[in-house]
């Protein structure tokens, strides 16, 4: 890491994982440790990249320099392929699990719907029987009254 490397406030905020506004608020505050890392370059405020590690605790990676070895590129590509394949398998497994769970939920819903239909039918039958019993009672009461009225 170079101590003389400066980046824009926007880039700094992005790397630090905070908003640009929060960086400006800190810069405008008094006795802020971030102020010692600021520099004006072409009328633009720039921050030293070392402030990321020293203030935010974010490790700044070294710029990647190309290696002239012919074996490193295929090796890193195969590692990437393996990682991609592993991720792909994991995603496939997850999709399979979720599909099974969805199928089980659909079966549960169908079963519960069937039970609900049965319950509604039973309720309707019992309501009809209650109505029929009430009608029979009223008919019997009417007949009893007629019998007593006959003797009067």
From TrEMBL:
InterPro entries: Cro/C1-type_HTH
Coiled-coil spans in chain: 95-136
Biased composition (Basic and acidic residues): 77-90
Pfam families recorded: HTH_3 (PF01381)
Record's keyword terms, sorted: Coiled coil, Plasmid
Domain spans labelled HTH cro/C1-type: 2-40
Region Disordered: start-end pairs: 66-90
Stated name of the protein: HTH cro/C1-type domain-containing protein
Source organism (scientific name): uncultured prokaryote
């Amino acid at each position: 890491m170079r101590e003389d490397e400066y980046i824009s406030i926007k880039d700094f905020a992005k790397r630090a994982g905070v908003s640009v506004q929060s960086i400006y608020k800190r810069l405008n505050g008094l006795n802020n440790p971030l102020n010692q890392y600021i520099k004006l370059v072409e009328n633009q405020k720039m921050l030293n990249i070392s402030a990321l590690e020293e203030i935010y605790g974010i490790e700044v990676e070294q710029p990647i320099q190309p290696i002239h070895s012919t074996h490193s590129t295929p090796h890193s590509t195969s590692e990437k392929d393996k990682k991609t394949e592993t991720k792909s398998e994991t995603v496939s497994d997850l999709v399979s699990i979720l599909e099974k769970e969805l199928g089980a939920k659909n079966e549960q819903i169908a079963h519960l719907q069937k039970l609900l239909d049965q319950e509604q039918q039973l309720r309707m039958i019992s309501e009809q029987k209650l109505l029929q019993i009430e009608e029979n009672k009223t008919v019997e009461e009417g007949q009893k009254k007629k019998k007593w009225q006959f003797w009067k």
